[in-house]
Structures are given as structure tokens and as C-alpha cells.
Write a structure and sequence with these properties.
heterodimer, A: alpha/beta, Rossmann fold, Alpha-Beta Plaits, 2 domains, elongated, B: mainly alpha
Chain lengths: 304, 276
């Protein structure tokens, strides 16, 4: 569906994407995980055939965005990071008018708009103004709008940023259903839980390059231990205490508010720490996540 | 090699819409815009110009001697001022519809960004936008001319019809040029400048209210360089029925060239502005 080789994007002197290779296969949910400014959105806009490629090669649905932009866009669904819903149109018209841009006839547009309102669970808001919708509803409407042309490939740029937990789960459920229905999804996110939930395969992006690639499980297996022991001590003590627990795990990360000890047996680490007479304020043993992978690969956490 | 066809050398990008198809797909959108805005447009499109006709043409004109030698062939001041007023009205509508609405579609509502995520191209957005502006210009000028027809200000029946087309040319030239200007503008302060230093001086000094011969040689030539003068002069000679066909052709060429240049700039500037 998508094939990129040495793909670059620069804005003047600033290089946002510094030569990445990506392949997205039909029917999979593919993710770009990385912090803000990693180059995810720039990549996404090139894939959406609205931002010219600065270098390298990019093929989308077998076509070149430089020459076949309109044909590519006709088969894509795009859910941009910033809502571009028309505030002056009501909810129904946002879907209907958008469908017309794709050359879909009026009757089909109307029928699909009705179906998508149902899918987005906003049928009762059909005649409401967009500005009266909640953040979650707006995002669901944006996704519904991106489906009006029955796209082969759906691009979602930070789909749940700014939504409350409940709204996120509703949205994830809908994306799951789309995936089940065979729609190829490409998602950018800086939430590791979102990437783990939704993506079959993902790349970890940082500073315009790809740091790692694989399924969430593969990435965790390759770059982290099975478990992590989180040790919280008093403020300012973490740096000094790191040396005293270093040998208990494969690796220790020092964060401002806690120590992370990577080991396949987290409970054993905690027991050993207490046996040594260290007194953490709080401890937590958990499984490794993509957050740990990112920390390992870049030395920074995703929230930075 | 020499036998390669023209089509092979310049392949049409896949999925690129014809100009007509590109506009037709936006018809429903602009229809909703029209439904939302037509009431507000009534006052500025129809009432305001008629107030001008009454105040300037009838009341002020009552003090002015109807001498065809001094009024570019018109037999009354009303007959002189009406074709100029309608032409400058065409400019005013074209300008006001291509300023804030363009900025809104870029900055406030982001309509253009949403539209560009579909098979529509920048060129299609400009075309549909200008078509909508021109619909407003055409409707408003047509009503204006029809209302004035019974007052005996037109010399022939065909003159006002051609004059209406001339007014559309004025609308095209200003709509495209101002669209190009608005597409580059980052803040709306630039519009105040455009109205104060552009629209108002043009309205006053492009021969709509008095023959530009009264301006003195230097200012007269300056007035001749303005697009609005070409429109006013063309509209007037057709309405009063004293057509200098060579000059008329020059007016048409100037306005047509400005429209083409304005359109090219509009597409270029919007493309640059929306580039991500």
C-alpha cells in the first residue's frame, strides 16, 4: 500500500524527515510512534499526497504522489491532527459536502452520510452545529468524514490526542472495527498504549529517523526485558542510588522521579532492594511497554 | 523520437479533474454558503447601490447641467453616473468577497485544507471560489441595471447587455487579483490598507463620478492606468451608445489580461500558502 525509500522532508534548512524506509501492507494497522517533533506528521502529510516529497522515493497505492496526487487522494481517508471540520455546516452536511468532493453522486452521499453518523454514534446530532459537539464527537465525525469515499487506506494523525480516556476507548473500538473490516490503517501517535492497542506493526521515530521497527511484542522483546521494577525514592536521591541497584537488573534508567530496573523478574529485584536496606517510598513491578523501548532507543521518554 | 505524441510528452496526472468537474464537485458546498449568506448580501448588493443612485444621480445630479460634450456623451448626469457606479459596484463586491472569505478558508475555517485532502487541486479551489464571487457580481449588477432601465438612462437595448458583460470583466479582474493578494496575507490588517488605499481612491477617481479629464493631465493619465477606469469607460460608452470600438477593444484586452494574470497569481500564491 505504501512504500518509502530514503524519504526526506525539509522546510528550508530544517530537515523534519531524514531518509526513512517504510512498507505498509494491505490490511494491517501500521503505526508511527514518537514524541512531538519526531517527523511523524510530516511523513503523514507526504503519504496523504498534500505535501511534496523533498527527497527519496514514495509510492502510495502503487502511484507517485508527485504526479498522481488527485488519484491517490481519491482512495485515501485522512483524519488530520487538527480538526478541519467546517464549523459553518451542520454535522450531516460536513459528511455530505465532503463526499461530493470525491465525485460521489448525491443519493449515495446522503446514504453514506446516514450510515457514518450511525457508525460514529452521532445520529441524533445530525442537524447540530459542529461547534456544539464535544471533542470526542468532533473527532469521530472527522473519522466518519474520512470514510465517506470508502478509502483503501485510512491515515490517522494523532487520533486521540486531547480526548478524555472514555472518548479514547470509544474511538479505539471504532478503529478496531474498521481494521476487522479490512481497512488498512496508518496511525501516528505519541501514546505508547495506543500504539500497543492498535498497531500490528510500527516504527519508532525520533528526530526524523526510524530508530526501530517491528510488532509491539517484537520491539519489547528486542529492546527491553520482560518486566520492569519501578523504585521511587525521595526527591533528588535517584541519581545517587542508581549505582547501588545497578547489578540487580540488565539495565537501570534514572528518571527525575524514579528508577527503572530492567529485569525478567521484577519481584526479585524489589526483594533484593529491600534486603540491601534501601527504603523506596513506593515500588511497582510491571511488564515492559513501548515506552521502555523508546527510552532505551533514544534515552528520552515519549512525553519529552 | 520526433514522432512522440504531444500527449506522451505531457501526460495528464492520474485523477486530475477537468476544470468543469473540479468546480461541479464544489457546487453543493457553495450552495450552502449562498443559503447562509444571501440575506446579508441583499443590503450591500442591492440597497446600497440604489441609495447611491438616488443621492448622486438624482439629487446631486439635479445641480449638474446635462451637456453631452462634457459628460462623455451622456445626456444627463444620471445617465453619466449610472454605468460608472455599476462598474465600481462590481469592483466593490468582487473585492469584499475575495478578502475575508479567502483568509477565512485558509486561517479560520481551514476549508481549503479539508478540500485539498480530496481529489480537488488548488486550481479547482480557486476556480470554484471565483465562480461564486462572480455569481454574486453578476446577480447584483444585473438587478442594478434592470432596476435602472425604466429611467431612460440607456441609449439602446443591447448597450446595457454588453455593459453588463463589461462589469463582469471588472469583477473577474478584481476578484482574481484580490484573491492572489489575500492568499498571501497573514493578518487581516492588510485588508484595511487595501480598502483605504485601493478601493476608495479607485471608486472616487476612476471616472465613475466625473470625467477624468477634470483631474488635470498627470492625474488623468494615472487614472487611465487603473483597471477600474477601463471598466467604467467601457461600461459607460456601451450604455450611452457612443462606442469607440478601438478603445473598447483596448479596455477588454486590459481587463482580460489582468484576469489571466490575477488567476495565475491566485493559484500560485494559494499553492505556496497551503504548502505543508
Amino acid at each position: 500500500m505504501i512504500s518509502a525509500r530514503g524519504l526526506r522532508k525539509s522546510f528550508g534548512d530544517f530537515e523534519a524527515v531524514k531518509g526513512i524506509d517504510v512498507d505498509v501492507r494491505k490490511g494491517e494497522a501500521f503505526g508511527f510512534l514518537g514524541p512531538n517533533g519526531a517527523g511523524k506528521s510530516s511523513t503523514m502529510r507526504m503519504i496523504a499526497a498534500v505535501s511534496p516529497v523533498s527527497g527519496g522515493e514514495l509510492r502510495i497505492l502503487g502511484m507517485d504522489p508527485a504526479t498522481d496526487g488527485p488519484a491517490i487522494r481519491g482512495r485515501l481517508g485522512v483524519c488530520p491532527q487538527e480538526d478541519t471540520l467546517d464549523n459553518e455546516l451542520n454535522v450531516f452536511d460536513n459528511l455530505y459536502i465532503y463526499g461530493r468532493y470525491f465525485g460521489i453522486d448525491r443519493a449515495t452521499c446522503r446514504q453514506r452520510a446516514e450510515e457514518l453518523l450511525e457508525f460514529a454514534q452521532i445520529t441524533d446530532k445530525a442537524k447540530a452545529k459542529v461547534e456544539d459537539l464535544s471533542g470526542g464527537m468532533k473527532r469521530r465525525l472527522t473519522i466518519a468524514r474520512s470514510l465517506i469515499n470508502r478509502p483503501d487506506l485510512l491515515l490517522l494523525d494523532e487520533p486521540t490526542t486531547g480526548l478524555d480516556p472514555q472518548a479514547r476507548h470509544v474511538l479505539w473500538d471504532q478503529l478496531f472495527r474498521l481494521k476487522q473490516a479490512g481497512v488498512t490503517l496508518v496511525i501516528t501517535t505519541h501514546y505508547m498504549d495506543e500504539a500497543e492497542q492498535l498497531c500490528d506493526r510500527l516504527v519508532v521515530m525520533d528526530k526524523g529517523v526510524i530508530a526501530a521497527e517491528g510488532s509491539p511484542r517484537e520491539l519489547i522483546d528486542a529492546h527491553s526485558t520482560r518486566e520492569v521494577a519501578e523504585l521511587r525514592f525521595g526527591v533528588g536521591e535517584h541519581e545517587a542510588l542508581a549505582a547501588k541497584v545497578e547489578d540487580l537488573g540488565e539495565r537501570v534508567e534514572v528518571l527525575p522521579d524514579r528508577l527503572l530496573v530492567y529485569s525478567d523478574h521484577g519481584e526479585d529485584v524489589v526483594t533484593a532492594v529491600i534486603e540491601r536496606g534501601l527504603q523506596p517510598v513506593a515500588t511497582l513491578v510491571r511488564r515492559s511497554t513501548l515506552e521502555d523501548v523508546f527510552l532505551r532507543l533514544t534515552g528520552r521518554s515519549l512525553a519529552d | 523520437m520526433a514522432t512522440s505524441t504531444r500527449a506522451a510528452r505531457t501526460p495528464r496526472p492520474a485523477g486530475t479533474l477537468s476544470a468543469w468537474e473540479g468546480m461541479a464537485r464544489q457546487y453543493d458546498y457553495w450552495l450552502t454558503v449562498l443559503k447562509r449568506t444571501w440575506r446579508g448580501g441583499l443590503v450591500s448588493s442591492f440597497l446600497t447601490p440604489l441609495l447611491y443612485v438616488v443621492a448622486m444621480g438624482v439629487l446631486l445630479g439635479g445641480f449638474i447641467e446635462g451637456d453631452p460634450d462634457r459628460l462623455e456623451g451622456a445626456t444627463s448626469y444620471l445617465a453619466f453616473v449610472v454605468p460608472g457606479l455599476v462598474a465600481s459596484h462590481a469592483m466593490t463586491i468582487a473585492v469584499s468577497e475575495s478578502t475575508y472569505p479567502v483568509m477565512g478558508a485558509i486561517k479560520w475555517h481551514k476549508t481549503f485544507y479539508a478540500q485539498l485532502a480530496t481529489p480537488l487541486a488548488v486550481r479547482d479551489l480557486v476556480n470554484a471560489f471565483i465562480a461564486f464571487v462572480m455569481f454574486r457580481v453578476a446577480a447584483s449588477c444585473a438587478v442594478f441595471m434592470l432596476v435602472l432601465a425604466p429611467f431612460g438612462v440607456f441609449a439602446t437595448w443591447w448597450g446595457p447587455v454588453l455593459a453588463w458583460l463589461a462589469q463582469l470583466l471588472v469583477g473577474f479582474a478584481f476578484a482574481t487579483l484580490v484573491f492572489a493578494y489575500s492568499a498571501r496575507l497573514r493578518s487581516e490588517e492588510g485588508f484595511g490598507l487595501l480598502f483605504r488605499l485601493g478601493v476608495i481612491p479607485l471608486t472616487l477617481f476612476s471616472g465613475a463620478f466625473f470625467p477624468i479629464g477634470n483631474l488635470g493631465p498627470v492625474l488623468e493619465w494615472l487614472a487611465r492606468l487603473t483597471p477600474l477606469w477601463h471598466g467604467v469607460s467601457l461600461s459607460r460608452m456601451l450604455c450611452v451608445g457612443q462606442v469607440d470600438w478601438a478603445l473598447a477593444a483596448l479596455h477588454v484586452v486590459v481587463l482580460a489580461v489582468l484576469t489571466v494574470v490575477g488567476w495565475l497569481l491566485a493559484v500560485h500564491n494559494l499553492d505556496k500558502r497551503l504548502e505543508m
